[in-house]
Amino acid sequence: MDWLVTIAQFLVNEILSVPAYLIGLITAAGLAALRKPAGQIAGGAVKATLGFLLINAGADLVVGSLAPLGEMIQGATGAHGVIPTNEAIVGIAQARFGARVAWLMIVGFGLGLLLARLTPLRYVFLTGHHMLFMATLLTVVLATAGLPAWAVVAVGGVLLGILLVSLPAFAHPWTKRITGNNSIAIGHFGTAGYITAGAVGQLVGRRSRSTEEMKLPEGLRFLRDSMVATALSMLLIYVIMAVVYVVKTGERTAFRVFAADGGAGATDLGDYLMQAVMQGLQFGISVAVILFGVRTILGELVPAFQGIARKVVPGAVPALDAPIVFPYAQNAVLVGFLASFAGGLCTLALLAWVLNPAFGLALVLPGLVPHFFTGGAAGVYGNATGGRRGAALGAFCNGVLITLLPAVLLKVLGSFGKENTTFGDADFGWFGALVGFAAKAGTAGGIVLMLLLGAAVLAGAVVVQKRVVEPGWSPGARRDALLPSAAPAQEADRDGEGPRRYAKVPPPPGAPTPPPPPRD
Residue spans with biased composition (Basic and acidic residues) (predicted)? Predict the structure, then answer.
């Protein structure tokens, strides 16, 4: 029987404990469950495995490109500085916790489907890369708090499953306001920022007209390319910090900052600045490699999850990535991005002058990618309830959240809090921080507190679904009454099943739906 033990040890130690192989096996199992041909199953498994290896390769590049920047920020400001980039911190964390992340993601997705089937929260979260990001965050927080591997997977899986069905419900009144119907939900862990933007729009919008009546310059549309936006933002940050660093420490010290990669350092000021430019571009390439790896994995894994979800939860509302709302208000996307970035800069100043000296919070530098995606979506949500003012001020508040919350989150990430990057979107910040502080109560007490936190989130989502979403409450109805000519073209029916148009005020419940106005 020794050979059976040897085979079992080989499977556990050499295959199931290797994240790349585990992801491939999960993909193969999902495709097999959908009765795909053998060739497609094998190809999907291999592509998912290669995608995971790409993530690891990109993570090594990210670490190398961020090391000089961290040294410059520390030397120039005396404080720890980070650039929130989900892909980067996930890639770094995979090296230590890859297997636990994979198992936690499986448990969380399965529980999410079960909750969607058994509760009123019939949302199926299909944004695979955000599932991976949240699974990684929960693994890092729970593992660094000292929980054993089984507890990390079990408790983290429960918390992930709850979030997958709860957060789309909290945002759904505002999402229906944008889409005009109940066909899709938002499945993205920037939900706190989107709800905040929609609420701010309600407060400040009143008679403000829609962003879609504005004409924006074509020259800014290149920022919609994520790789270009990442490289540009890092290039600017690197050059600015390089200039500040050389002014504060002198050329002799500053020129050696790039010698850590095996080079001899800079030879003159021009070489020093151009090495800073190259490091910024290298970061853009690093994130592009990680993104390609994530897309390669999810291109095979998500279809399997989708097929399974259709069988388990028929008639469910798909919860999709943040860019799903971009086509509804394209000008609001750009307004939201710029306003969110401005909010990040203002909060960075607050961190540098007040919160870092008083509480030791790290300096969170605004990156273009999180501000573009979450800020752009926040602009759409703010515009839906408050027009131009809602888009600008709502997205500004989102920028404040995704700068302040990551600084708090770093306090519970253990050794990962010393990395030069972290998780960027709002829900990672508030939920990760709460889970992390609860985990500090010890193994037994921490598990109880975390499960109570999950139960509170789930109960709140059920209340919102039953008392707000299903009755058809519209968060922008008051503004529509004040500004009939700027009312959105579509508004959700009370039953959420279709759009209706109106001239001045929403028709009362039960009134017949008027025909749409003639098109020009």
Answer: 491-500
